[in-house]
Design goal:
Chain lengths: 275, 257
């Protein structure tokens, strides 16, 4: 499937000013998510990763700077293209509608957009579930009845049915155990291979970032900006064994160096703020 | 359903209920302090079978109290749910009316009795009004809280997935608030019985509350106990009915158990 979906973020600044004390969340933040590429973003807590993701999704506006999708202005200080199915988010705590079954959740997008009738949307949802590894059996379950790993997979499918140009993943595997996590990585890689959406994944897990992404962006501590841009040239399809390769180790060293310096800064500042 | 029945009707529960009646009986027979005037369970059962089981007047008390609870409860839902939704969604409306609501809320339902009798044309309508007041404030507050607790992510995602803004209200807001409505119903039905019984004792000549009070006034402790047990059963039944409705309202919760 060839679809556009390149995101370009230029000179984004975001200042929160809730109680007069201006907090610079993002400063001079620029980066690219090329069409069909998998980009991972790592950085210390509170560095503005989610803020940036929310802006791309259309939930928030920058103080200055702009974000473009395929050369169309998406967000700036004065423009905010409302959220739509070009760019769908999967949140860290999950946001499946608990009152809808798995099937109804996945079919939700096409139904509310009226691009397809209920019958057809549900048929497609069923197909997607099947393609994602025989998940048809959970079609009639409610989200509360399935494991959190399953929930995340369903959420990704709910996004995919809309053929989004960009998939925005905000730490979707955060609370998962190692085994489920590595399974989810495989699923996500499969999905990326099959559907080729551009992906922005926020994570704290460097191994995850390197294993999945084409580009790893390391953010600085607040005010957040891109510190390093690491190109991951591991061949695709990726497999878990690549973690053991020398190339992987080398990339990991680079990333650790960059991240730890920022984490230390954030930590020290945190102590100062407490004092 | 069968499983639920089994867990309610467990044998330990039976033992405990039997034990309760046994201790009560012994306490009366041995005339322990405070129990001298009390009727023992056998006397109560005898009295019930002899004079009340076939008595239309007694069963009418049930019907009367149930009607009052039902009307009070339904009106409270009818007015409370929309008001809670309005408070939660419309800031201007909330700024305008919430202070008034907060001033009225702490007034206990029974403090409304005298005014209610003056205001409403019939005794029946004043009792229903007081019952309504009991559940109303609780329901509004619960629904209001429910609206405030709606997950921001759900609203965002609905927009992301292409739902038009006006649809979001109905499709996300309402189902999100259903659990809070259910909590309001559970609390509401309990307080409704509280209020109706007290109101009947103060201001009515019918209903289970009145029956109990008459037992006291006429120094027939058996009647008093029959009244109390009837009220307990009525409350229990209402709660069961409300719980059933709630699980129908939230199929996604029901299956989780």
């Amino acid at each position: 499937m060839s679809q556009a979906g390149s995101i370009s973020v230029s000179n984004i600044q975001k200042i929160y000013d809730p109680e007069g004390a201006a907090v610079h969340a993002l400063e001079n933040c620029s980066c690219e998510i090329p069409s069909g590429k998998f980009v991972a973003m790592v950085g210390p807590s509170g560095c503005g990763k989610s803020t940036l993701l929310n802006m791309i999704a259309g939930f928030d506006k920058p103080t200055s700077g702009e974000i473009k999708l395929d050369d169309q202005l998406l967000v700036s200080a004065n423009t905010q293209t409302p959220p739509n199915s070009d760019r769908v988010v999967v949140f860290q705590n999950g946001a499946l509608f608990p009152w809808k079954t798995v099937l109804e959740n996945i079919a939700y997008g096409p139904i509310v957009q009226k691009t397809r009738g209920r019958g057809q949307a549900e048929e497609e949802a069923r197909e997607l579930l099947n393609k994602a590894g025989n998940l048809e059996r959970i079609a009639g379950s409610f989200p509360g009845q399935i494991s959190s790993g399953m929930q995340r997979r369903v959420e990704i499918l709910r996004a995919l049915i809309n053929k989004p140009k960009v998939l925005l993943l905000d730490e979707p595997f955060r609370a998962m155990d190692t085994v489920s996590k590595s399974k989810m990585h495989q699923h996500l890689l499969d999905i990326h291979d099959k559907f080729r959406p551009s992906i922005l994944l926020i994570t704290h897990d460097l191994v995850e970032a390197i294993l999945l992404a084409d580009v790893v962006l390391v953010m600085t501590t607040r005010p957040g900006t891109i510190k390093v841009n690491i190109n991951v040239e591991l061949p695709r399809p990726r497999s878990r064994e690549m973690i053991l390769s020398d190339e992987f180790t080398e990339l990991q060293k680079q990333a650790i160096a960059a991240v730890h310096e920022e984490a230390r800064k954030a930590f020290e500042r945190g102590e100062k703020e407490l004092a | 359903m069968l499983k639920q029945l089994q867990s309610t009707l467990n044998w330990r529960g039976f033992v405990a209920i039997f034990g309760f009646f046994l201790i009560w009986y012994l306490a009366c027979v041995l005339k322990l302090p405070g129990f001298a005037e009390m009727a023992n369970p056998l006397e109560v059962i005898q009295m019930f079978v002899r004079e009340y089981a076939h008595d239309d007047h007694y069963w009418l008390s049930w019907v009367t109290s149930f009607q009052r609870v039902l009307y009070g409860f339904l009106f409270a839902q009818l007015f409370g749910i929309p008001l809670g939704l309005l408070f939660g969604t419309n800031e201007k409306f909330r700024n305008l009316f919430f202070p008034v609501f907060e001033l009225l809320r702490p007034i206990p339902p029974l403090a409304w009795v005298p005014m209610s009798i003056l205001f409403w044309p019939t005794n029946e309508s004043s009792i229903i009004f007081i019952t309504f007041i009991g559940a109303f404030f609780i329901i509004v507050i619960n629904v209001f809280d429910g609206v405030r607790d709606i997950k921001r992510e759900h609203l965002w995602l609905a927009l992301s997935l292409g739902a038009p803004r006006r649809v979001v209200f109905l499709r996300i807001m309402l189902p999100s608030v259903i659990p809070s409505i259910a909590v309001g119903m559970t609390l509401g039905i309990a307080i409704t019985w509280d209020v109706v019984i007290a109101a009947e004792m103060i201001a009515s000549d019918s209903g289970l509350g009145r029956l109990t009070w008459e037992g006291y006034v006429s120094s027939t402790p058996e009647v008093l106990v029959i009244g109390m047990i009837s009220i307990g059963l009525a409350g229990y039944l209402s709660t069961k009915v409300v719980n059933t409705i709630e699980s129908k309202m939230m199929p996604w919760r029901r299956v989780r158990r």
